[in-house]
Write a structure and sequence with these properties.
Strand content: under 5%
Radius of gyration: 23 Å
CATH superfamily: MFS general substrate transporter like domains
Order of helices and strands: HHHHHHHHHHHHHHHHHHHH
CATH architecture: Up-down Bundle
Largest sheet: none
CATH topology: Growth Hormone, Chain: A
Length: about 500
């Protein structure tokens, strides 16, 4: 009896066989370093853009800069997949990111005062053209905007596309149900490490002077903290490349793992035009893309108002970086807890039930957040600070939405790709993940940037009722799309509904 109980407990908490550890551990470690970079870059890009350019500029950046960059990358990725195997594409793409981060840290950021417009120039230009205010401020801080673009693309390119593409090629659906949630479970320790690193780097008294002098060589504490964080991202990325090399050389060909080696070492063959036509004509990929778009749009309309409140409470770059560090610690801890729950939901229940939990949870917490923001805007004579309360409420919403995303949204979405053929799985996923993810955020950016262009003096507090209405509509569309996609997925995968 005790042995049967322990076996069931192990299946719930750790459904990985010992022989599978040689594959599972390096893959989970790679996910951990990827998420470390994701969380670090999110804090870095926000600490650069929000205090220096303004929270309202985020919607303009996502629409006019990040989305075109995502489309351009997708075209380049199609060509790379026809020339190189997946591991080599990973090396090339990841290295490009790391090279830019190195250039930014060593040259662009230290010379920011020389390469950017000064405050007087920006003010004169915005006064002359108020409707172009945010474009002028972004161009005036162009290197920060470039860092924001690369940081935004990291999550969709390296995590959603490169990592999961490799996993989908070599793992069977049955094994994926056990592996995928636990990749996220181990990987989310990267969020905790990133948060701890942000706090550590923002408190320079605990950092050895030798490291500070080698990496930053600056008397400005905020500059030093930022550059230390960027160098940690570069080191983490290099470790990811080494892990990918190790898996391909020493793990992939292990016979007892039953991995699909031929798929990982194959190349796609369709031309660029044929690839685009295949992706656009696929109803299945279209439904997956709609899910990704809805997630991005829902999160985007919540993100701006929350970050604007953070800016009110923590106006300096260093304070903002420190807050985001603590936020990442809490989010990482929450994600780890949700991963255990999510892994068992995916194993026990149908794909549809697991997929519906994300929009339902985000919808409920999002409505509560918007309600609280509206309430705080008209409640100035309270016994507590309404700005602080809004920041905490928004932080709780973000923590919950990210926790469920990593445990259920990503896993169910990736399972939907596995039954597809190599061309559609490779290039369809690229279009859905890279363009679709940024399209969702850009649609939110179109709405927000449009309002701020028409009403230059408006703030997020002024447009919150409109954003809340849009948010509710998006969540409803998301839920309906899951029901349609579930029918297709069940048909091609042979999965039985519960």
């Amino acid at each position: 009896m005790p042995s049967k109980f322990l076996s069931r407990l192990k299946l719930i908490l750790w459904p990985i066989e010992n022989k599978e550890l040689k594959f599972f551990v390096p893959m989970a470690a790679m996910m951990m370093f990827a998420l470390y970079n994701f969380a670090s870059l999110r804090s870095i890009k926000d600490s650069l853009v929000v205090p220096n350019i303004g929270a309202e500029s985020i919607s303009f950046l996502k629409l006019w800069f990040v989305l075109p960059s995502a489309v351009l990358f997708t075209v380049i990725y199609f060509r790379l997949c026809n020339i190189f195997t997946m591991d080599k594409v990973f090396y090339i793409v990841t290295s490009c990111f790391l090279v830019f981060f190195l250039i930014f840290s060593l040259y662009l950021y230290p010379n920011k005062n020389n390469i950017h417009l000064d405050a007087a120039q920006i003010k004169a230009l915005t006064d002359a053209s108020p409707h172009l205010k945010w474009f002028i401020r972004i161009i005036g801080h162009w290197s920060f905007a470039l860092m924001y673009i690369f940081s935004e693309l990291w999550s969709v390119v390296i995590i959603n596309l490169m990592f999961w593409q490799f996993a989908n090629m070599i793992v069977e659906t049955k094994s994926a149900k056990r592996f995928y949630p636990l990749f996220g479970l181990i990987g989310n320790f990267g969020l905790v490490l990133a948060g701890s690193a942000m706090v550590y780097f923002s408190n320079l008294t605990s950092v050895p002077k030798e490291i500070i002098n080698t990496v930053a060589n600056s008397t400005d504490q905020a500059d030093t903290s930022l550059r230390l964080s960027i160098f940690s991202v570069i080191i983490s990325g290099m470790i990811m490349i080494l892990i990918m090399y190790y898996i391909n050389k020493y793990v992939l060909y292990e016979k007892d793992l039953m991995l699909k080696v031929s798929a990982a070492k194959s190349k796609t063959k369709l031309s660029l035009s044929s690839s685009v036509r295949l992706v656009l004509q696929s109803r299945y990929i279209g439904m997956i893309t709609l899910i990704i778009v809805c997630y991005g749009l829902a999160i985007n309309v919540l993100e701006g108002p929350w970050k604007a409140k953070i800016k009110e409470l923590y106006p300096t770059q260093r304070e903002y970086l420190n807050f985001m560090g603590n936020f990442n610690i809490w989010m990482g801890a929450s994600c780890i807890s949700f991963m255990v729950i999510g892994s068992n939901i995916i194993r026990i229940f149908s794909w549809r039930i697991a997929a519906l939990i994300t929009p339902a949870s985000i919808g409920i917490t999002g409505v509560l957040f918007f309600t609280f923001v509206l309430f705080s805007a008209y409640s100035k004579n309270l016994l507590f600070n309404p700005v602080f309360a809004a920041v905490i409420a928004g932080g709780m919403q973000n923590i919950l939405s990210k926790s469920i995303k990593y445990s259920l949204f990503d896993s169910t979405k990736e399972l939907a790709y596995i039954p597809l053929g190599i061309e559609l799985r490779t290039k369809g996923k690229a279009a859905a993940e890279v363009v679709g993810a940024k399209l969702g955020k850009s649609m939110g950016a179109v709405i927000q940037s449009g309002m701020f262009t028409i009403m230059p003096a408006a703030t997020f507090n002024d447009v919150t009722p409109i954003l809340m209405t849009i948010f509710v509509i998006v969540v409803i569309i998301w839920i309906i799309d899951i029901f349609y996609l579930d029918k297709e997925y069940t048909s091609i995968s042979g999965e039985n509904k519960n």
